[in-house]
Design brief:
Layout (H helix, E strand, L loop, with lengths): L1 H15 L8 H16 L22 H8 L5 E5 L11 E5 H21 L2 H29 L2
Antiparallel strand pairs: 1-2
Length: 150
């Protein structure tokens, strides 16, 4: 899972450090988001039922503030509530690219922490769980935002 950790590191840096000087930040972010999405399909683990300590999100830096400094043109976007309701042109909602990336980074930090502090199986189990229930939609929304603003 070396590829997983290195891909996670390429994404989380935007939430851990402000004002990064990276050429083509959005292109590289997009590439690594797609890579995380792809790695999800390769998850294989044996369930580990050990009782491990929990991830402490309170010790994280101000991820949102760092993302804002790294992606100054990220912000709100419009999306539809029900993509399958093609006759309904009125029910829209507002999304937030900074919030999407913040949630993605927080999820990836926990996956990485579990792999490094608990066990590989625990980290992969959490990756599978959180991806399906949370991270996946944020990745799709953020990728759509990046594509649409070009």
């Amino acid at each position: 899972m070396v590829e997983l950790i290195s891909t996670i590191n390429e994404i989380i840096k935007y939430g851990l450090k402000p004002n990064l000087t990276v050429t083509d930040k959005e292109k590289w972010l997009e590439r690594h988001l797609v890579k995380i999405y792809d790695l999800y399909f390769e998850i294989e683990y044996k369930f580990d039922d050990t009782q491990y300590p929990s991830f402490d999100k309170s010790r994280l830096p101000d991820i949102r503030k760092n993302i804002t400094s790294n992606f100054k043109n990220f912000g709100f976007y419009k999306t539809v509530l029900d993509i399958n309701d093609i006759d309904n042109l009125k029910d829209n909602t507002i999304g937030d690219a900074i919030d999407d990336l913040s949630d993605i980074i927080t999820d990836l930090l926990e996956i990485k922490w579990r792999i490094e502090n608990n066990s590989l199986a625990d980290g992969l189990w959490f990756f599978e769980l959180i991806f399906r229930s949370h991270t996946q939609q944020h990745i799709l929304d953020l990728l759509n935002f990046i594509i649409q603003k070009k």
